[in-house]
Amino acid sequence: MIYRFRVILDNDTKEDVFRDLEIVKDSSLKDLHELILLAFKFSGEEMSSFFTVDEEWNQIDEISLMNFDNSTKSMDSINLSSLINHDNPKLLYVYDFMKMWTFFVELIGEGELINKLKYPRIIFSNGMMPNVAPKKIFDKKDFESESDYDDDFLI
Question: Is 36 within the bounds of a domain?
Fold first, then answer.
């Protein structure tokens, strides 16, 4: 079986930038990471992470490229099939934490392996990648006010 994912760049431009990818269901999350690097022409020299998310794309757990300690999981230790299904079809992917290339990753289908095809593969490409990562614009409502914090160190 294969998973078909749509990977969409989080940007505020007129043109949507996304890639549709197919990968064997039993592949690791690191395999999906490498396919995303290829699909969006990243060098792979920067750190990256996947994040499990809720239905509104709010981050829950981080899965990093490398395991830094026992509190985080690494991409090569997790199979796609153990993480992704129709009840839990979404991930967030961040590449290069200094530039914050951010992507919405969503399961859009499953299918049978076709013997003559090589997986993983890019099956559709839409939009040109910008030269620089889109800036994240945060509304004031995205942040809690200082009065929400009770801190003895505030003067």
Answer: yes
